[in-house]
């Protein structure tokens, strides 16, 4: 009888150990490329691809020093460009998406359901299907080789994902608060600024974080619209270290790639709890 009682417990412990081993193995598979990149940034050019061991024999910062000043302009300019675009994109998304979400969640107007359905449908459109029409439009506006194609659409509420996220969050706020404010004489604008906006803090922070990370890491759009070296961003500038027809500086490329991860890593590390809180409190009720 005792043996039979201990058998299920032994099987549970075995399954638990197997689960932990599988998670550890998966973690190593996911972390190894990052360790290889960081370790390779401290290695000599000849040792990067000849060793499977991601850890360097010595930590030599020469690749970081040479990589930072290897281009003209230096990476200081590229970082400033990336931060400028990311900050403007965050401001545009927060302002435009919040106003649009408030209209969909609280206001009544003709065609509201149709416009909301169109907005949701735009999420399903692949970005590459819109690339040529958008480029033609921005070209005729004279915006190519400027930051305007990367920033102005953010102020026009083009990110439907964040609008939908905010709409779902605002719908969880009791309408009795709106009604009480209306009795006190508040209009739609004051209800939005005094009641709705302060209560949407978690979803606003989530929008800011994801907008910053996605904009900062965006390579394709910035490659299409930015051609002048002085206006390039960090993701676009990294391709300068890889020459398809000649010599490539992989050590400097890995070093600058490590540094390019620092802003997003810091943002995610500091705001990790806010991201989970913002998504968890969004709600799913209509």
From TrEMBL:
<dbReference type="GO" id="GO:0005886">
    <property type="term" value="C:plasma membrane"/>
</dbReference>
<feature type="transmembrane region" description="Helical">
    <location>
        <begin position="150"/>
        <end position="170"/>
    </location>
</feature>
<keyword id="KW-0812">Transmembrane</keyword>
<dbReference type="Pfam" id="PF00528">
    <property type="entry name" value="BPD_transp_1"/>
</dbReference>
<feature type="transmembrane region" description="Helical">
    <location>
        <begin position="191"/>
        <end position="216"/>
    </location>
</feature>
<dbReference type="InterPro" id="IPR035906">
    <property type="entry name" value="MetI-like_sf"/>
</dbReference>
<keyword id="KW-0472">Membrane</keyword>
<keyword id="KW-1003">Cell membrane</keyword>
<feature type="transmembrane region" description="Helical">
    <location>
        <begin position="114"/>
        <end position="138"/>
    </location>
</feature>
<feature type="transmembrane region" description="Helical">
    <location>
        <begin position="78"/>
        <end position="102"/>
    </location>
</feature>
<keyword id="KW-0813">Transport</keyword>
<dbReference type="InterPro" id="IPR000515">
    <property type="entry name" value="MetI-like"/>
</dbReference>
<feature type="transmembrane region" description="Helical">
    <location>
        <begin position="21"/>
        <end position="39"/>
    </location>
</feature>
<comment type="similarity">
    <text>Belongs to the binding-protein-dependent transport system permease family.</text>
</comment>
<keyword id="KW-1133">Transmembrane helix</keyword>
<feature type="domain" description="ABC transmembrane type-1">
    <location>
        <begin position="79"/>
        <end position="271"/>
    </location>
</feature>
<protein>
    <submittedName>
        <fullName>Carbohydrate ABC transporter permease</fullName>
    </submittedName>
</protein>
<feature type="transmembrane region" description="Helical">
    <location>
        <begin position="250"/>
        <end position="271"/>
    </location>
</feature>
<dbReference type="GO" id="GO:0055085">
    <property type="term" value="P:transmembrane transport"/>
</dbReference>
């Amino acid at each position: 009888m005792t043996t039979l009682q201990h058998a299920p417990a032994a099987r549970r412990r075995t399954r638990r150990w197997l689960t932990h081993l599988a998670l550890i193995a998966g973690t190593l598979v996911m972390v190894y490329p990052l360790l290889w990149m960081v370790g390779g940034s401290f290695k000599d050019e000849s040792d990067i691809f000849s060793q499977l061991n991601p850890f360097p024999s010595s930590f030599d910062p020469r690749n970081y020093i040479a990589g930072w000043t290897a281009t003209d302009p230096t990476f200081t300019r590229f970082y400033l460009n990336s931060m400028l675009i990311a900050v403007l994109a965050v401001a545009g998304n927060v302002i435009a998406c919040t106003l649009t979400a408030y209209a969909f969640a609280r206001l009544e107007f003709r065609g509201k359901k149709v416009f909301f359905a169109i907005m949701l449908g735009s999420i399903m459109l692949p970005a590459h299907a819109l690339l040529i029409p958008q480029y033609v439009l921005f070209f005729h506006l004279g915006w190519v080789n400027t930051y305007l194609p990367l920033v102005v659409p953010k102020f026009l509420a083009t990110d439907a994902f964040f609008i939908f996220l905010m709409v779902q969050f605002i719908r969880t706020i009791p309408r009795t608060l709106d009604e009480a404010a209306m009795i006190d004489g508040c209009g739609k604008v004051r209800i939005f600024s005094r009641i709705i906006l302060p209560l949407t803090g978690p979803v606003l922070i989530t929008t800011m974080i994801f907008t910053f990370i996605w904009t900062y890491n965006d390579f394709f759009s910035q490659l299409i619209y930015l051609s002048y070296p002085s206006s390039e961003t960090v993701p676009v500038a990294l391709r300068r270290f890889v020459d398809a027809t000649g010599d490539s500086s992989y050590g400097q490329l890995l070093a600058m790639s490590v540094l390019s991860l620092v802003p997003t890593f810091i943002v995610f590390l500091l705001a990790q709890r806010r991201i989970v809180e913002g998504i968890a409190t969004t709600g799913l009720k209509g």
